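Example 3.
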Amino acid sequence: MPAEVAGAALIDGKELAERIRADVALESAALAARGVTPGLSVVLVGDDPASAVYVGAKEKASREAGMAGETIRLPVDTTQAQLLAIVERLNADPRVHGILVQMPLPRQIDPDTVIRHIRPDKDVDGFHPVNVGKLLIGHTDGFAPCTPAGVQRMLMEYGVETRGAEVVVIGRSTIVGKPMAALLMQPGAGADATVTVCHSRTRDLAAHTRRADILIVAAGRARMVTADMVKPGAVVIDVGMNRIPDATTKSGTRLVGDVDFDGVRRVASLITPVPGGVGPMTIAMLLHNTVRAAARTLDG
Ligand code: NAD
């Protein structure tokens, strides 16, 4: 059997996320013993079913990690002024160390205005311009967005050499692609990479992806990356989460990534599955950021 047919090894995001969450629970208990129980407040506006699932998962995970906090559920017709008043209250509450406003928001609310109202030292999502700026400068006292931070942690935990590596990121969103590139181009451990960012206007995408030692895909296009686009032996990280129809399942749909997993795993050396790859890491890194925010209140 040719070596490449043996298939890539899997990056087990679920197992890694559980380990991080166990560490977070220990740190949370240690902080509580010093009088500071980490508190995460999540705000959900409206009744988008996917958002409700994400928020429920964050609530459960923070409780399991021994954190305090609450989920504030607001009606879909909440005004921007009402939401900003709640953010102000959470900003001022010393028991709240992390604030997360679940996106997307209803049309009458401008997400950027809301994000700018969150105190940067409580912005555990890492979307406030202050934290975005710190990430780009390379200051480590801000918060990096949870999904790209989770990807970087995965690469480090699996011993993937990023120094000098050719990294290609597909996607330039503020949530994933741009911060992913910013993290990996910094000097230091788990970074020092040569990063190319591809997007919907990129000419000849495959010419870029075939050069990648590490290919990170966050395009939101089901199975768009096929085996012929991947260099043999590459590490492939699939951030995508796409629901596609599948008559064989109870719900009639199935979750797939942006990577054609069955084809690409024959070529890659290491690959993340969907589900069970990047997804679980996002919540783990959110908890990690919240514990850091709480710890900083003790450091003065
Ligand atoms: P987005 O829609 O904001 O951005 C997608 C990016 O992909 C854009 O910059 C676009 O230019 C690029 N793109 C789209 N089609 C392309 C193509 N054919 N060729 C090259 N580039 C293309 O999405 P996002 O918020 O960055 O999310 C991307 C994916 O990651 C989605 O599937 C989303 O569900 C998933 N996601 C997963 C997690 C997680 O925790 N696992 C977190 C955030 C997002």
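The chain is about 40% helix and 15% strand. The CA atoms of residues 99 and 123 lie 6 Å apart.
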